[in-house]
Design a protein that fits this description.
- With about 425 residues, the chain is α+β, with helices and mostly antiparallel strands.
- A 4-stranded antiparallel beta sheet has the order 2-3-5-6, with no helix packed on it.
- The model is unreliable at about 1-25 (pLDDT under 50).
- The protein has one domain (about 5-65, about 100-265, about 305-410): Up-down Bundle (Outer membrane efflux proteins (OEP)), CATH 1.20.1600.
- Helix 1 packs antiparallel against helix 5 (about 105-170), helix 2 (about 30-40) crosses helix 5 (about 105-170) and helix 5 packs antiparallel against helix 6 (about 175-210).
- It has helices spanning about 5-15, 30-40, 45-65, 85, 105-170, 175-210, 235-240, 245-265, 305-370, 375-410, and strands at about 30, 70-75, 90-100, 220, 270-280, 290-295.
Length: about 425
Amino acid sequence: MTLEPRFFKEVTLLVVGFGVFTPCRAQSRLSVADAVMAAVQSRPSLQAQAEEVHAAEGLRRHAGLFPNPEFQFQNENLRPGQTYTRDVDTLALLSQPLDILGKRKQRIAVAEESRSRAQSDYQLARWQIIQRVKLAYWEARGAQEIRRLWTTTVGNFQQTIDYHAARLSVGAIPEQDLLRVRLEGERLRVSADLAALAATRTRIDLLRAMGRTDFEEIVLTEPLEAASTLTPSGIEQVLARRVEILAARAALRQAEANAKLQEVSARPDLNLTLGYKRTQLPDALSGVNTALASLRITLPVSDRNQGNRAAAEAEVRRQRHLLAAAEAEVRADYFAALQESEFRRRELSDTLEPLRQHAEEITRISAAAYAEGGTDLLRLLDAQRVGLEAELARTQGLVEYRQSLARLESAEGVDQ
């Protein structure tokens, strides 16, 4: 049997064109928005951070409570042989601490700022999880695409092996050519197995970032090609949105509120006491009833809360330095992400895409030349390798561009 060169062209071109790989069984489909939503809803560390907000809310409510009064009941002149109702003096006192010098108000202010800081810390943890999930998604999406390319290549190259086996059976080619083709097929299968392993690893990393405990097979549906580029925001808008800055500012406000609390804590404590005393007079058949009233004031002579005030002022200065450091870090992060996204975009459009087109053209020319007997098998295989490597490089470039856009979104403070 003799195979026509045209048929060989069609077979070899299948090695260049990559078809769509369809999984053999039903799998759950996942977009990047679904992955982010699942992580926000089910990530245990984020739920633990949310409990800190509830704890801060409870402390805020407690800070606004007034101190409890104190009741004291006392008997005096208790001696053996006495009649309790006639010979014993009775004293009943009700004491109420007076929190009227600004301490309660400042405690409430500190608790409010503590709650605000807890909310900012929660938003920061949420933002970090979203960023981690996005980067993991695009890494897994790229690995899935690379696995599809290798799987399709292996399947298509099997037709090339079958074709050469058929040619060998009719004596059209030497056995050495068939061995070379089979060796190339084995190399492709090894690379496909490694790509499948990498896809599994990145899929598990994605599910771990989402907080999932079941590592089922999933199909990532987000297209690698970006629909559009982001319009950069101004640095002032970035500073106003970034959750690290909001958290640092909340920490500074909390430190300032605590410094004021330590200052007012040096003020005297007041305690009002009202009471009743029944005194049994000598040689009298009935006792005398007396009302009591007192005001107790602490005197801040030696202890004026100096240590706590100094520590609180130092904490304010520390939080100011941390805020300045956070702003500097955000500026550097934003401009680095902006430059990276622009570099990845140019690399994709100016280098990787033309490289893939040139490699496809070289592969077509080599396939046609081999079909006409104008070149040998090794040159054809080299051309096909170049075409595959160019396609893989473009896929990796798409992944890195998508990840650079995700970093830019995070740098701009986008939490969706």
